[in-house]
Amino acid sequence: MAYIRGMTHDITIDPDLAWAAFTARDRAQDGRFVGAVKTTGIYCKPSCPARHPRREHVSFYRDGAEARAAGYRACLRCKPDEVGRDRVAVARAVAMIEAAEDVIALDDLAASVGYAPHHFHRLFKRATGVTPAAYARGLKARRVGQALIEEASVTQAIYEAGYSAPSRFYEGGARRLGMTPSAWRKGGAGVTIRWTIADTSLGAMLVAATDKGLCRVSFDEDEAALRARFPHAEIMPGGGALADLAAKVVASVESPERDQDLPLDVQGTAFQEAIWQALRQIPFGETRSYAELAALAGSPGAVRAAGSACGANHVPIVIPCHRVQSSDGSIGGYAYGVDRKLTLLKREGVA
After folding, report:
1. Is 44 in the active site?
2. What is the pLDDT of residue 87?
3. Which of 44, 48, 75, 215 is catalytic?
4. What are the b/e assignments for 153-188, b being 16+ CB within 10 Å?
């Protein structure tokens, strides 16, 4: 199968898909290949804003090095060779945020990787799906969750996670956890989860939600599995309170082209949440490799971790992890069976 892959060197470029990306100025394809114009001797990235040449004058190469070897030079307007530099900068910034004990100001973060603050803010969000500040808040919230399990004192756990005072945590961190810190320490005690089993063309589907949003969507699971996952929560039938939400989840299975914009109450590590954000950015009818997904989350080298984050997805379909496949073009795994994954992709028009 001909495909476009920008994360490996054993790629084949489908010229029709590449030309379609160029005519659409598809920013998501930047870094995966370049287009070289014979009449000007210049190569560009797909999103280049310059006027499009005629199709017969354009050749496609895997990267700038290959285009330069063929005698072309980089476009001074779109600067195609800086795409790789952008990804490295985001990866460095993520590492700095995760290593820092205190919040790093945007100006300092951008200066450390050699970018203007406003430009890097936009670049970081495009690559990870969240702003640098949101990424840092997510990381802190996850650390609080882990510390609440390990520490005897809620206050001590908040300090261990890097907050300067409990009041700073309660300003935003508690909302990210989806429950109070004491409830988190007790394994979700005090949280009410409503559930139902909905019929779909892919089989019976468990739909469960808190008052904040969906916390579990799965196939081949029942009430017992839900109780095992949330042992200290109050589990009760959904009834009419869950009917509308469950119907929208079913609609996402049967008509995936319709964006249901469903509320969620799921938490993960900062990296997992960045991966889940990146998954939600994959357009209907398209796929990405695990390597590409890791790059979108700002950690190009974390390919295996990206796969693990997909496996930890609490709400498949809603967060479309079925749109990710292996870097060699094969279908890859799926928690609820490859047959279901193939069916979902077929419904989206993916061969």
Report:
1. yes
2. 73
3. 44
4. ebeebbbbbbbeebeebeeebbebbbbebebbbbeb
